[in-house]
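User: Sequence in, structure out. Go.
Assistant: Echoing your sequence, followed by the structure tokens.
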Amino acid sequence: MIVTIDGPAGTGKSSVARALAQMLGFQFLDTGAMYRMVAWRTVVTGTDPGDHRQVEELTSASRMELIQGTILLDGVDVSGELRTAEVTCMASIVAQIPQVRELLVRRQRDIANSHDIVCEGRDQGTVAFPHAECKFFLTAQADERARRRLAELLAQGQETSFELLLKDQQQRDQRDAQRKVAPLRPADDAEMIDTTELSLQEVVELLHRKILEKQSRPG
């Protein structure tokens, strides 16, 4: 079974997807981390993100595999390197490259062929898994999304400001919504969930109930 959770940054997609996968006994596929891995490698190698051929080659040469809910890059867990502001910004840029998206969507589908998964991202229900059994699209008010991101970065010891994060978030939302390849939008059959006033646990339990209800329906 495939469960997709899409939506913009700050809506709690990753945390919800990870907890929901554990509750269901599924694998968690963090597709956002896959783009962040490409972004991180672009940054550390000094690759020009405007050189699409180089970024495509870098992506093609990067081995990604799902091991017990963690995506490893060339056999190494680099998740601790992926949440900086620089990598976040670069991820939004490299995600606009059609060849990069094609390569990573293909890898996501390969992983899903051998696992029951809960996956999150921006195009999971529309492009990667259009025939997924359950699709959700999470939203939240802009200020609340920026506050969540600020708390996350401060907890990691990274200094930034609410105003800067809100501005970066608005720019990223615009890029994601306007890109030509796999723009950010809910699938026609996705259920919209506003997480502004909900806790993480409340969102997880809500989605869990909806999935169980769908599984119990005849046919």
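User: And one key feature?
Assistant: The chain has a mean pLDDT of 92.
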